[in-house]
Amino acid sequence: MKNLSVELKWAIIFTAAGLLWMVLEKATGLHDHYLDYHMYLTNLFAIPAILMMVLALKDKKKNFYKGHMTYKQGLICGIILSVFIAILSPGAQWITSFVISPEYFTNVIKRSVEIGYFQTTAEAEAQFNYDNYAKQGAIGALLMGIVTTAIVMIFLRSKKSSVI
After folding, report:
1. Rounded CA gap, 120 and 33, in Å?
2. Distance, CA of 148 to CA of 33 (rounded, Å)
3. Measured between alpha carbons, how far is 134 from 43 in angstroms, rounded to an integer?
4. Residue 47 CB: number of other CB atoms within 10 A?
5. Phi-psi region at 66: left, alpha or beta (left = phi > 0; alpha = psi -120 to 50)
6. Taken in order 131, 35, 140, 83, is the CA torsion positive or negative?
7. What is the pTM of this model?
8. Measured between alpha carbons, how far is 67 from 81 in angstroms, rounded to an integer?
């Protein structure tokens, strides 16, 4: 388990940051008064998410691989980290849905029907519910984590040192 301690640490940090982001969204009214802006502003979480992935990979490179990490080693680290985040994601979504903002789904269902995004409440309910968000969150965390890692490792991998 020592080999995975960096990934586990950063998965917990990532999950805590995501929950903090949800508290911030709730506090600023994006889950009720300013719901129309939510679908745009929630995507800003990509900035700290990418930063945390970079920091996690740098941490693994520095503290586990002693400053020399290949692309493959970093990719494996990022995949494992993404799996851990995906595993934690349904729990974080549960906390968001039932503790931080229990009225969010009711609000977004009502609003999406009002503006004609969905024709019926049943259609909106099929989209906006805990089960759907938990699945989407886990799959999204896994896919985006892997894609982010694949790109970040192009820049973070150790270059072969030339022998003179």
Report:
1. 22
2. 33
3. 17
4. 9
5. left
6. negative
7. 0.92
8. 19
Q: How far apart are the C-alpha atoms of 8 and 1, rounded to whole Å?
A: 9
pLDDT in tens, the chain (164 residues): 679 999 999 999 999 999 999 999 999 999 999 999 999 999 999 999 999 999 999 999 999 999 999 999 999 999 999 999 999 999 999 999 999 999 999 999 999 999 999 999 999 999 999 999 999 999 999 999 999 999 999 999 998 754 45
- Is the C-alpha dihedral spanning 11, 8, 132, 107 positive or negative? negative
Residue identified by tokens 């985040």 is 85
Tokens for 131, please give them: 């089960």
User: Which residue is it, tokens 């990934």?
Assistant: 7
Rounded-to-integer distance, Cα 60 and Cα 85, Å: 16
User: To the nearest 10°, the Cα dihedral for 86, 90, 92, 94?
Assistant: 170
Task: Find all residues with CB under 8 Å of 73, minimum gap 6, and list them.
Answer: 60, 65
Is 87 buried (19+), middle (13-18) or exposed (0-12) by CB count in 10 A? middle
d(CA 89, CA 134): 7
